[in-house]
Amino acid sequence: MDQAQSLRQLVSNKDTKLVPKDGVSARIITVCSGKGGVGKSNFTLNFALALKAMGRKVLLFDADIGMANIDVLMGVSSKYNLYHLLKREADIGQIIQTGPGGLQFIAGGSGMDELFSLSESDLNYFTTQIAQIADTMDFILFDTGAGLSKETLKFISSADDCLVVTTPEPTAITDAYALMKVVHNSFPETSFRLIVNQAGDEREAKATSDKIRMAASRFLQLDIPFLGYMSSDAHVVQAVKKQVPFSVAFPNSAAAKDVQRLAQNYLAADSAEPSKVEGIKGFINRWLKRK
């Protein structure tokens, strides 16, 4: 009952007022991983909730073309998704869903692959619609697909920041470094931040991050900030089965405290600098029009 009451309270406190900000562009954040199974989507969802709980206006965009599951993790049924907006069967207000804590999100699924073949007219319509909600936000988080596809590369290189999620598993470490290497070689201005998930303790998390950071420094001359780590916590699996974010279902768990600390670290870093992509319109222009 305590968990259910906690969820109801968060939903009842949702902020439904969308007020455009004066000349301040939303910061565009992509969350990626070198491979699947590292808990990227779960991190993204709870990171967004942590930012929201700290008073920031957040929009979460499920941009995983093949394995969209943000709505499943929240137990929220989505009547509309991006496809309906592209086909002009629904406007932006209809495809925006509300999850726990008043978190606003756009469900993934069908429609993502059609973005790259839009006509000029449809692209302008899409941009105008997204801008209506994006101009009211502080942060827009894109949960991208695992690995590095052509579409994911466009997401990462077009955003303000890329949060790379890995685990202490050797293959995850190797793949995370490989992803950053490919992106950096093509788009050296890309800003990365590293998160180690499913760490046994702080020592293991630091050892994992050090391996990646030292390789990046030696071979890429790239300094990658270590944002922090998420503990290996059985509550996370339990929350997934309940289809409730772990920070809502188990707010006192180690994972919930870790994701709160990560959000605080992010806000305390140089993320307060102005958006380099001039808000959502600049992001979409770089993302969908880049040759």
From TrEMBL:
Coiled coil: none
Source organism superkingdom: Bacteria
First and last residue of the signal peptide: none
Keywords from the UniProt entry: ATP-binding, Nucleotide-binding
Annotated AAA domain residues: 27-184
Any Pfam family matching the protein: AAA_31
CDD domains: FlhG-like
The keyword Nucleotide-binding appears for this protein: yes
Protein name: Cobyrinic acid a,c-diamide synthase
